[in-house]
Amino acid sequence: MAILEILTFPNPVLRQKALPVVDFNTALEKIVSDMFDTMYDAPGVGLAANQVGILQHVAVIDVDYDVEGEDEKSRKLAGKNPRIFVNAEILERTGSVLFKEGCLSVPGFSEQVKRSEKIRVRFRDLQGKNHELETEGLLAVALQHELDHLEGRLFIDRLSEVKRGLIKNKLLKHRHESFERSRFRVEL
Length: 188
Ligand code: QAP
Ligand code: CO
Known about the structure:
The protein is α+β, with helices and mostly antiparallel strands.
């Protein structure tokens, strides 16, 4: 059990591309296990490896976990359905939907993002076995969001220039203010 630090915008690691996983070993199991601990702790419904500083093509998703639940116990009761996607690629896309997305690396903001409605993905599991999945709804949106992360892309990149600018300013201002606060404390 390990909860990792979630990197937030504008950390440059979030702009790097993940490398394909080649070794399906216990190190990979540990990464995935820590990613789930981190995601459920946040709580969130999806997490990509580069959000925790690991540049490997791994995403974890649980769209059945009730992140709005009062406490950890009620969230768990609502259901847990952990899914692991290693080296996932989208083979086919159809339709389009608008979904109000958020991101643990862009905390406190959510905006409508245009995504494909239905996708067909190929991915590997922890053992390296190949799978194919056709999906729509929240899982399809979450997968597209996490695969963007693994390409170094954030949901705010898909917003209009104006909206992206507003979010960037607010996040940078907040960062500046917490830096000023910590400096003040050190000088006291
Ligand atoms: C990605 O996002 C996603 O701003 C996962 O203050 C996006 O878990 C999956 C979160 C859209 C499906 C649809 C965001 C938590 C969690 C915040 C998340 C926050 C606290 C985001
Ligand atoms: Co995200």
